[in-house]
Amino acid sequence: MDKTTNLYPMRINKYLALKKISTRRGADELVVKKKVFINNKLAVLGSKVNENDKVEVKGNKKKEYVYFAYYKPIGIETVSPKEGLFPLGRLDKNSHGLLILTNDGRITDQLLNPKYFHEKEYVVHTKEKLRSSFKAKMEAGVNIEGYLTKPCKVKILNENTFRVTLTEGKKHQIRRMCSALFQEVADLKRERIMNIKLGNLKPNALREIKGEELMTFLKSLNLTN
Length: 225
Known about the structure:
It is a single chain. By secondary structure, the protein is α+β, with helices and mostly antiparallel strands. Among the domains are: about 5-55, Structural Genomics Hypothetical 15.5 Kd Protein In mrcA-pckA Intergenic Region, Chain A (Roll); about 120-195, Alpha-L RNA-binding motif (Alpha-Beta Plaits, 2-Layer Sandwich), CATH 3.30.70. The chain is about 20% helix and about 30% strand. It has helices at about 10-20, 25-30, 105-110, 135-140, 175-180, 210-220, and strands spanning about 10, 35-40, 40, 50, 55, 65-70, 85-90, 95-100, 120-125, 145, 145-150, 155-160, 160-165, 185-195, 195, 205-210.
């Protein structure tokens, strides 16, 4: 049975978002512009859709979505350097590395909602030498102010450097995990989000995500361009 069957009747904006036609906010705009019809009748804000209803969006040109990998430098807040795009997630002012910029609002929930698990990889330098128990304790989950972090993967690169792969993104999580294990972060760089890698990108530079790389990324989020 279709998992969505028991969701009906549902609001028209939720329906259009579920069908990947628009975001909920964008769906409301389409309704206000009188472009949405349910069973050949004009929809209004709050209209409900049943499973077998015929829903049409007239005159709605498919939005051209674009995606960029961006190297956020140290010392600036998370903002988009390109007009019309927004960053997915953030890096704190003292961290640097990969951000994904896009105009595709469909991705926000899929990538940032904690109920989904998507890998993010970082290289971290610490001010002090890493303790012998650091890897095992970090991987098992760390209690940060009452929250136990999910298991992660850690690779020790040298006495002051490790690579960590997380599937969650609490605020300042890596810094807080390290602090709880008596290690102070000297430098934190994000190198990968899912299959998107920072690679040789220079600070404050952009590169477009396209082709097979983009297809793999969107497929992992159950989306198409």
